[in-house]
Amino acid sequence: MVTTEESGSRARTRQAILQAAIEVLSRNPAASLAEIATAAGVGRTTLHRYFAERSDLLAGVVAEGVTRLNRATRRARLDSGSGAEALHRLCAEYFELGDLLSLIFADPQLVADPAWATEVCDDDFHGVVARGHADGSIDPALPSTWLQSVLWAQLYAGWSYLAEHDVSRHEVLGLVTRTVAGAVALRR
Amino acid sequence: MVTTEESGSRARTRQAILQAAIEVLSRNPAASLAEIATAAGVGRTTLHRYFAERSDLLAGVVAEGVTRLNRATRRARLDSGSGAEALHRLCAEYFELGDLLSLIFADPQLVADPAWATEVCDDDFHGVVARGHADGSIDPALPSTWLQSVLWAQLYAGWSYLAEHDVSRHEVLGLVTRTVAGAVALRR
DNA sequence: CCGCAATGGAACATCACTGTTCCACTACGG
DNA sequence: CCGTAGTGGAACAGTGATGTTCCATTGCGG
């Protein structure tokens, strides 16, 4: 660790604020700091103690997002099975990111943050697609960058579908993976 | 017509403002009115003459969006061919909506506008899917509401892909339709 | 040429959000 | 029991967006 450790209390408050920020900003990227503080069950003053300026909070959210995303990618164990199978697992793991998915879509310029480009391991994804192209489980006519767009769009569709319709999380995940699988598969 | 006709000049300015609003808001839903006015090549004062408050402008944008959407739906001639074929044409027509697609995604609460629910003909879409379920061209495991989410998500993916990568409009439309076709098709 | 429609710019009050300071309160360990 | 860390609330000035008013300019038809 380069930075000094925080007390348990501070670390907990910090996480509460980040979590609240993700939830609130995913619904409204222009939300005020007061809204976020309230959602975190914290005074606005306290929020400013942890993140002096709005941009600091946003940077914190990006960092937290990158961390969660990388954890999910690791959990997907992309190096085993066919390309399509790995993609299927990745889909399921990313789906669990929940609000973060909405946030990524609601505020694309957050993803434009330099930290995102440098710390998120896109290469793993492209590797999976290349493997899928080679082993015949992924349509070679669909480039890797396009499939990345498709995957995210589909995940977002699933998450917002979950919010709007009265269906179970599991059921929606089934729809998402089935749809992605169909979109990706080689045509006869 | 219930409302009084406007002079040619006024109608043109009004359209310029609405078009600029769609373009600017699709990139940043929190854009200021000054930005929109500048993009429209119009003074802020003039903008206020056409739309007294911000909410009036947003209502105008929604109305314009509904109009364009309905025109596109009509152009798709949903009543001919198989369900999947009709969906394919709808996809192509909606893709031409361009910025409007981004706007619908960038500001979902705009679509929550009551005018949207009442004036957009969702029934036509559900009819197409039902036909596709019946004629075997659309997987019956995928409900109509879900396919609606999928279609929009895919269109948005295509449009943002176009903005980020150096590919032709036509090429992207090909990717979108191919992907949607695969996602929708019945599994073997 | 006159008058009207349409416009742009300047100036203004208002408002919400922001970032900051200061003070009071609570909890917890020594 | 005392001191400190963590916190919340009130108050404040600065800033930018908003909505309004007023005036000057342009262009076009009668």
Automatic annotation (TrEMBL), chains A, B:
> Which keywords are on file for this protein?
DNA-binding, Transcription, Transcription regulation
Name the chain's protein. DNA-binding transcriptional regulator, AcrR family
Which PANTHER family does the record cross-reference, listed alphabetically? HTH-TYPE TRANSCRIPTIONAL REGULATOR BETI (PTHR30055:SF234), HTH-TYPE TRANSCRIPTIONAL REGULATOR RUTR (PTHR30055)
Which Pfam families does the annotation name? TetR_N (PF00440)
Which parts of this chain does the entry mark as a DNA-binding region?
Answer: 32-51
Q: Name one GO molecular function term.
A: DNA-binding transcription factor activity
Domain HTH tetR-type: start-end pairs:
11-69
